[in-house]
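Hello forum,

I keep getting stuck at the same step: I have a sequence, I want structure tokens, and every attempt I make locally crashes halfway through. Rather than fight my setup again tonight, could one of you with a working pipeline run this one for me? It's a single chain of 385 residues.
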Amino acid sequence: MKVTVTTLAFCVTSLLALGLVMLYSASMVQTDEYTHSEIGARTLQTQLVFSFLGVMACLTLTALDYAVLKTIAWPVFIGSLLLAALVFVPGVGHASHGANRWIWIKKIGTFQPSEFVKIALIVLLAWHGDRFQRKMNTFRRGIILPGMMIGAAIGLIFIEPDRGTSILLAGVCGTMLMLAGVRWLHVIPPVLLAAGLLAYSLTHDSMRSTRISAWLHPEAHADGVARQAVNAEIAIGSGGLTGLGLGDGVQKHGFVSEIQSDFIFANIGEELGLVATLSVICAFFVIALCGLLIAFRARDRFGCLLAVGITSLISYQTIINLSVATSLMPNKGLALPFISAGGSSLVAMLMGVGILLSVARQAGPPKISASDYVASDNPFAAKAA
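Reply #2:
Ran it on my machine without issues. Output:
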């Protein structure tokens, strides 16, 4: 387990360091719309502050016995929902790009509550799966009650609107419920219902339907909605094997507007090349593998579900972000964990890593395989004369 923990910490730290470097590189050519001054240093300073806060939160949760989370699962979940609801309060919520996802805090900036709803929901579902582990195969305990929790969290996020986070959370929750013992036949009806509602919502949302059309036919929207995706592909392709050089990227000069956040992977590919992009993918793969090993070695069901939930969150969000950057999926607006700009996302992800490390720290002893067992190990066996 020490090797697993060390490897996990190394990968996360490496991605965090890479993110700080690439964030400054991506934002150093950007200017403030009011003062027209460069914002690269300011962006880096902000990310450094949130990195520090995230690392402190990670270390605190690592030192804490994760069993404590059972006692505060409901208060934390309710508190996160109240924070998520504040984005709709005039004067408190901050709207941008047609969405109400942020809370404005004076002298600090924006804060995105949905990032912490993710962690709170994972903790609550882990508590529920542990508390009712013998009844998770029933429709009431396996679907109805957790469905109400999931519906409350995803519902608030969905109407912000934030379709990407809603889909992400649905996938994470589905993974946790299946591991907790929910029956397949019980899962199919709510999944079909959710898919139908999502399809209806997308077809009646002009902005999202346009994004899907641009994804399917990028050549017809190259100067409009598909501009970022097309230029992100150009950035990754032009980087070649070793990239154009750190700071020498071209697409960040106004061609990809969100290159410091949603499309930072494109900047990595352009400036550092295929070697760096493959290294990033390998690092996330190793993080996922470490998370699964921690879940397997967890001392109890609660720890196992927590580890699987956090690992699924990091992995699924990474897959979605990389798929968007390479045009395998339409734009979802999700950050690349540990790398993209965004203080709320960074702190929440590092909190998740802290929970993973806490589960690893409290891991049980290794299981004895059948091949290691001998008859003399049985205390009730008859003793030879």
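The beta strands are 93-96, 99-105, 109-111. If your local run keeps crashing, start a new thread with the error log.
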